[in-house]
Every structure is written in structure tokens, then in C-alpha cells.
Amino acid sequence: MAHNILRFRSLTVRYGPTTALANLTLDIPCGSSTAILGPNGAGKSTLLRAILGWQAVASGEIRLGDAHPQHARPRLAYLPQRQAIDWDFPITVRAVVEQGRYPALRMFHRLAAADHQRVDRALDELGLLDLAERQIRMLSGGQQQRVFLARALAQGADIFLLDEPFAGLDLFACEELTHILRAWETQGRTVLAAVHDLELARRTFTHAVLLDTTLVAAGPIAGVLSPANIDRAFRHGHCVHDHPPGAAQTSEAPR
Amino acid sequence: MSLHDLIVTPFSYEFMRRGVLSAAVLSLSGGLLGCILVLRRLALMGDALSHSLLPGIALAWLLFGPSTTALFVGALVAGLLTALGSALLSRLTRVKEDAAFGSLFILFFGAGIALVSKLPTRLNLAHFLFGSVLGVSAADLRLAAIVSGVTVLIFLVCYRAILLETFDPVFHRAIGGSGGLVHFGFLALTVLNLVAALQTMGIVLALGLFLLPAVSAYLWCDHFFRMLLLSVAFAVVSSVAGILLSYHAGLASGAAIVLCLGVVFVVSALFSPHYGALQRFQQYLRERHAVHQSPN
Q1: Domains of chain B by start residue, with CATH
Q2: Confidence class of residue B121 from pLDDT cuts 50, 70 and 90?
Q3: Can you tell me the distance from the alpha carbon of A101 to that of A185, in angstroms, rounded to the nearest whole number?
Q4: B160 at the A interface (CB within 8 A)?
Q5: Which entry of A44, B127, B148, B225 is 20 to 30 Å from A110 by CA?
Q6: What's the predicted TM-score (pTM) here?
Q7: ipTM
Q8: Burial class (CB in 10 A: 0-12, 13-18, 19+), B11
Q9: B43 in contact with chain A, both atoms CB, cutoff 8 A
Q10: What residues of A are in contact with residue B163 (Cβ under 8 Å)?
Q11: What number does CATH give the domain A4-233?
């Protein structure tokens, strides 16, 4: 059994009077790829925000390895939702990936040769070297997503927090991302992603956490996504069914 | 008229030298700030902010007379009250930030107009609103130089934080940056620069010196740093040309500078090779042509 990189002990998070996460005790194994699943308002994004320290914790604690996440920031990389980015911004692919090196730079210091090497390696790993000088609007949706994955790699992180990475991607781009995330998992990188689409999650991730404010189930994804568990998490009859007749794809449309 | 008469003679007057120096110095900081306003879609908010300075200036004039320091402090207080007030309103009530800003600025502007109409001076409203190069005193020039210097220095020191906060505030926060500090610092800098640009540009037109060069540069550049440089270059060239235009044609200096910036903007919007209207139109025609030519 691999050791656990992220540990949650009786974690409770509140927004004013509403409880977003209640008494969550959970371990995320090192080098696993884990999907955070559940209906709208189940606390998927809240869990990511709590790890990043953006969400005050009402009680309980989060440990990253042996440390508090605040002291392990360089190990964490966060991927924004696609809609949060202004794709017309005057910036090239390379310049975005270089941002991954900013936290490691001292004030007034420019990127050193070693930084440029890491940027090149990240671009290369995600097949973006030929596109490096393009403005980011001039890319396909899948390529745009890869730019931000490359920035996370350049950061030197080994734990990746992804907020709805499949949202707004077409079928082909989803397959591509699935492929990349599977490869990362075999390389021992830890991926934690809030995901809407159960079918996509099943194909992409080895582990899953099923939330409905409280923990419904956690562990290897096949066991977590049992009909009984899904029924428990989605019993309020929100929007998602695991096997809607005739529909293979239920990924969210871009806003 | 010889070239000498056109370009050199005007600057034999002291007020012209002060005017052009003040405009050029403010172009440096205005060009930089404008880029952030454009990229963060705060252009209209900047406009509202500039209007809201009026009551502060009028009140300062009423209480302390034409003292540069008093005008400056008055405008600064009015600007910050509007910015903070609308931020509070949007958090404490149901009103969204744009509506809060819109309501407060029009309230402030109205109060300002009311105050100015009561001013016991022959100096008229037009001077406050549209600027006058004749009004630039040595103290005004010094103020402009300090404000511009501080702004450029902050851009140099905090370049990466500014880029991240503008492009991807969520990432900036994730790596431990302070978004609130950058945002508030940016608002404060904008108010400072608006106030410093008051004498030359007037409060209605001051934002033009920030916005027009930036939006022109935005049409040409695919790199953030190059956009900053080009915006500053557009601002400096246009403001010098504008001051000369105002001298020869007898125009209000703010209006003349805005007109020169406007030429740059219109040319950019039409003829920019990647993002201009003509290029888009040509592309549309080509595509239509291709559709008609295809056998199906």
C-alpha cells in the first residue's frame, strides 16, 4: 500500500450558515489519480479550495505529507477553469508556461538557463514546442488546456489540483486529456480533479471520492461508483444519471 | 510656416514647456495603467472614477483656494471614497459592483457640478472638465513627475505580480500572491495619475490619455511587455503632437491630445494586420469567395 500524500481528518467547512463539507475523513494515496465526484453543491470545489488554503476550515485538519499545505505550496499546482481565462490576452504559449517559474524567482531576477530548460521540457512533454510562440487564442481547446498543464509541470509541482478540467472540451480534446492524465499517474504524479461526468471519470481516474457534503465513498473508482453509492450521492434527483440511455457524453457545455 | 515655427517656437514660452513636459511625463504612467484597465475590462470604471473626482476638487478649491496640494488631496479622497464605497455597496447590498460604481460616480459628479456652480471665482467649469495647458504650474509639473515616477517604478518592481493578477488572478493567489493588494494599489495609482493629469487634460478627458494608447497597442501586440512599451510610445508621441496642435489651432489641450490619440486608435482599429477591421473584412470576403467557388 502506497503511503498517503493528502490526509483529511474530520474536515468541516462552512459558508456562513450552510455547511459545504461535513466531517470529512479521507486519505489520498501518493501517485494516484483521483476524481472528486458528486452532485452540484456537494463540496467538490470547496475541497480543492480548502487544500489551497482559500477556504477557512471550521474544524478538523488537512495534512500534506507531514506538513500543513501552506508550507508545501511549491508542491501544489492548481489548474483554473477554462472560462476564467481571457483568451485574447496578449500573451504567447511560452510566456504562460514561464509563469510556472515565477514563484521560484527572486525579485528582480530573470529566468535563468535552468528555468528556460524546465519550460522547454514542459512544452515538449505536452507537445507544445512548435506552438510556443503562438498567441493563446490561436490554439484548439485541447491545446489550450495543455498550456496550463505545462505551466503546472514547469512549476515543479507533484500534486495537481484540477477544477472541472473537462468542461468545455470537445470529444477529441477529452480523450487527449484522459491520455495525459493516465500517463501522469503511471509517472507517479498525484492528480486530484473535480469532475462532473461519471463516465469520463471512470475512464480517466484510478481512484474516486464521492461526496454529498459528507463522504459517501472513497477508494478505487470501480468500487466507489457502484449503483448503490451513486444512488446515495445523487438521491436528491439533481441532474446526473450514470447511464442515460443512448448518451455516452454528458460533459458540460462551455458557458 | 517653417518647421522651426511649427515645432520649436511654441516652446519658447515657459507655460508651453511646462505643459508638454507634464503631458509627456504623464504619458509614461498613463500608457502603462491604461493597458491594465483595458485588459481587466475596467475601462468604463476608470471613466467613472475620473468623473467622481470633481466634488473633491471643487470642495478643496472652495476651502483652500487654488493650492495644488489641496486640490490633489481633495481629488484623492473623492476618488478613494468612490472606489471603496462601491466595493462596500456591492458586498453589503444586492447591488452589483458596476451598478454601485455607476450610481456613486454620477452622485459625486452631480455634487461636484453643484459645488463648482457656487465657486466664488471667475474660473469656469470648462477648465476643470477639459483642462488648460496655461494652468500647469511648477508645482503641478513636480507633482506629475513624482506620480509618474512612482507608477513606473512600481511597474518595474511588481511586473510579474501585475502580469499574473491581470492574466490569471486565481493562479496568482494559488502561488501565494496577494490579489487584493495589487487590485487596491492599482486603483490608488489610477486615482493619483488622474489627479496629476487634471491640469493638462481635465477630469473628463484625463482617462483618454490612459485608455486610447493602450487600446491602440492592444490591437497590435501579442506580448504583454511589448503592449506596455507600444502604449507608452503612442501616449508620448500623441501628447506632444496634441500640445502643439492646441497651440497652433487654439484648442483646449486635453481635447487636442485626445484627438491625436484618436487618430492613432482609428488607424489601429482599421489597419492592424492581425486584429484590425479591414483584415477581418478581407478574411470574410475570401471565405465567402471560397464557399462560392467550391463545387458543392
Answers
A1: 3-291 (1.10.3470.10)
A2: low
A3: 23
A4: yes
A5: B148
A6: 0.84
A7: 0.84
A8: middle
A9: no
A10: 99
A11: 3.40.50.300
